[in-house]
Amino acid sequence: MTVRLWLIFFICTLFFVSLSPLSAYGQGFNTFNNRNHPELDWQVAETDHFEIMYPAHLAGIEIEAASISEASYTALSKNLDVTFDEKIRIYLTDEDEILNGFAVRLGYTNIWVHVNDVARQWSGNTKWLRTVISHELAHLFHGKAVRGNRGLLLDFLTGDPMPSFWAEGIAQYETELWDAYRGEQWLRTATLDDQLSYTDGRSVWNGRLQYAVGNSQLRYLTSQYGDSTVTQILKHRSSYFLGFLKTHDFYKAFDETTGQSYRAFYDEWRRHVNIYYNTLAGQMENADSLGSKPLSIPGQYVYDVQVGPDTSQIAVVSLTSLSRPVRRLFMVDKAAKKTRILAEGSIQSPVSWHPEGTSIAYASRTRAKNGSIVNDLFIVDTKSRKPQRITHNRRAISPSYSPDGKRLAFIGSERGTANIFILDVETRTEVQYTSFEGDVQLSSLQWQPNGRSIAYSIFDDEGKRTVQVLDTSDKSITQLPTDHDDQFPVWHPSGSQIAF
Fold first, then answer.
1. Given the DSSP bridges, would you call strands 88-93 and 50-55 parallel, antiparallel or unpaired?
2. Residue 313's beta-bridge partner residues?
3. Which of 41, 117, 235, 313 is 20 to 30 Å apart from 479, CA to CA?
4. What pLDDT band is residue 249 in, cutting at 50, 70 and 90?
5. How many Å apart are CA 404 and CA 14, to the nearest integer?
6. Which has the closest alpha carbon to 165: 266, 63, 16, 85?
7. Stated pTM of the model
8. Could you tell me which residues come within 8 angstroms of residue 318 by beta carbon, excluding any fewer than 6 positions away?
């Protein structure tokens, strides 16, 4: 063991200089989008603990980001007993519609802002900027809390200081509320299916399950041992070379802090969630109680199903396999029992049938101005199967044909504010029908069968998720009398009721 550690120390000394260029090279969003943006004019705003980097066209966002960052610093510093000697850098951009951010242990985080997808991919009432900044900062605080005394390389060569599930679990536990899309539904499904492993490669949702498992285990751990146990685990160090080298290993720290191995804890936690979710399931009706036969549709993972105008055909957006993880838009002819592929790519839901069944409108991520990744609208002919792009650099989703097929309503987003637009299918001219301002996102737009109104779900600037109805004749808006986490409105064929 001593020889191995001396060898590690020697290698670390030789290659320590290799860490220096990472600071410059890693500070780029091109890791995800494969594009640089030299056209941007970057600005810097400083607070007591942060340097906030943002393009000039986002001026104003640094004020909100500064408030969130400093509040997060205060809470995380107290909870994890960590402070930073140097200012943390936060890079913000809206060049891509990517609902994500990432932290780098060298002391900075990159975050995409003004992403409308938070309205349909997440639940809960916390706005995106608050969630993502605090979450990514939690990663940096976690990294600092477990840092050894001789650099990052030796930390990872002598142990596992930040297992991915534990890192994401701490970030969620410290900064977020437990809700459906950020964990609960993935953990519940995996438990009931007896597929709690997020590393088996069997599910497209394994990434989300990893977050949920980590969060759930943190909650169970603190319920059994108290919140202070988390800090004690993070502070644990193993000493080598008479204390010259001190590093953190999660599994050893867990064992010595709690008095039981992580493996034993995992088995205990697994029994706990199994009892909890199976007890709940035993009190609920199953899908068979609906009295309907399941549809036979293509795909291993289904994102959207839309019945055609005459009900003989169905549009399906699905992922056929994990070996080729590309979404496809299928048209299923129920009578002929035939399936055709109309389009493939990063197709978003929902899609919309033309009332005559001749085409389907959909949104898909594509390259736009300056190589940015954004959503634009397409129409595919159901016979020729030739997609046609009808918007460019529009950040548009949720197309919905009017009952007469002459207009296409959609959601367009700009600078973090979403609004409803109606496009004339023939002339391609568009008219804005709502005038929302501020931090507002929309999703799940659907035209009323009589052609008068449009239903949609809104994630407003106060964090409320509700369903609203827009009257296209006078542009008035009716708020449905619900104020929970309401999403995905669907009209009754009579147009008199909405399911959501």
1. parallel
2. 333
3. 117
4. very high
5. 72
6. 266
7. 0.91
8. 297, 298, 299, 300, 301, 302, 303, 327, 328, 330
